[in-house]
Amino acid sequence: MGECTTDAIAFPVPSTEDVLTDVLRQGAQRMLAQAVEAEVAAYIEAHGDQRDGQGHRLVVRNGHKPERTIQTGLGPVPVRQPREGKRGHH
């Protein structure tokens, strides 16, 4: 009959291990982020009584530090650490 006019294209299929590793790495990233957020929240709460002359908190949340990568048994995991700081005097 006729000649085949389509080419077979092979797409790489991730192995089950690759998919599982990605899921575990994402879980580790979420756990680290939650642990760091909880630590910062506890620190800020513990120092919530420190106020300046106008009654403003001296220890406040101050964005995030630059993202960094932590090497784990699952490979590198990116982490963003919240930044806490003392409010400047105006």
Number of strands: 4
Report the portion of residues in β strands.
15-25%
Mean pLDDT: 80
Tally the helices: what do you get? 1
Structural class by SSE content: alpha+beta
- Largest β-sheet summary: 2 strands, antiparallel
What is the terminal-to-terminal distance? Answer: 86 Å
State the shape: elongated
Helix percent band: 25-40%
In order across it, which strands form the biggest sheet?
A: 1-4
Poorly predicted spans: none
In N-to-C order, the SSE pattern is: HEEEE
Task: Using the CA coordinates, give the radius of gyration.
Answer: 24 Å
Describe the SSE topology.
Elements: H1 16-46, E1 59-64, E2 68-72, E3 75-79, E4 82-86
Antiparallel strand pairs: 1-4, 2-3
Can you describe this structure?
With about 90 residues, this protein is of the alpha+beta class. Helix content is about 35%, strand content about 25%. It has a two-stranded antiparallel sheet. Strands 2-3 form a two-stranded antiparallel sheet. A hairpin with a 2-residue loop joins β2 (about 70) and β3 (about 75-80). The longest helix has about 30 residues, at about 15-45. The chain is elongated, with a radius of gyration of 24 Å.
Q: What labels would you give this structure?
A:
two-stranded antiparallel sheet, 90 residues, alpha+beta
At a glance:
By secondary structure, this protein is α+β, with helices and mostly antiparallel strands. It is 34% helix and 23% strand. The chain has one helix and four strands; from the N terminus they run αββββ.
